[in-house]
Amino acid sequence: MPQHADRNCYNQFDTVNFKRQLMAEHNENQSPDIARAHDVSERPDEFLLGQTNQDILLETCEDHQIVACAMVKQAHATLRIFTRNLDPAIFNNADFVDAARVLALRSRFSKIQILVRDSEKVAKSGHKLVDLARHLSTFFEIRKPSPHYSTFNEAFILVDKYGVMHRQFSDRFEGIANFYSPMQARDLAGLFDEVWGLSSPDPETKRIYA
After folding, report:
1. Exposed/middle/buried for 9, CB within 10 Å: 0-12, 13-18, 19+?
2. Beta-carbon contacts of residue 106 (< 8 Å; ≥ 6 apart)
3. For the segment 22-47, what is each residue's pLDDT rounded down to a tens digit?
4. What mean pLDDT, rounded, does the chain reach?
5. What's the number of CA atoms in the CB half-sphere (13 Å) around residue 154?
6. For residues 131 and 190, is the Cβ–Cβ distance under 8 A?
7. Alpha-carbon distance 192 to 134, whole Å?
8. Domain with 179 in it: what CATH number?
9. Domain range enclosing 147
């Protein structure tokens, strides 16, 4: 049995306490102050990848769009995405795709890895990030996790070795982000690498539907 296979989510949870639980989901090196996504858009110079250790509360898809774009625009080498369905509300937009394109072309060592559990609908309906991955396949790889992880319902983004965006429930938008959380990034990267090693290339994202 894979090491992290028991890291499951609950099917039901207390909505009143959910935000409180997210606010408490900090490692020992994180800042006690909580920012909002609009702080990132209004004061971008204060949120620097690899430097700014401040938690950011995420509550909507717009929050995720703002923070994800800001992080990836500052990336130097790697982007890892673990997602249930490649979240079109977050990733299927021009700003994020442009940031991913710049990262992919920044260096011959750039690497963008995506784990997506359910890609058939996304591939058939169209997705800008999938289209980019097809065109820049040297830098992108999309894989489907092993069935061992079918009950894993978290979602996260890792940018370089520092940036983290994490949702405990992949079908909700509530989450926490931080531009400098190396310990959490390392922990999630270990999980990502484990799942990646047992995953397989996703044929759905390679097909082009008429």
Report:
1. middle
2. 75, 76, 77
3. 455 544 444 557 999 999 999 999 99
4. 85
5. 21
6. no
7. 22
8. 3.30.870.10
9. 32-201
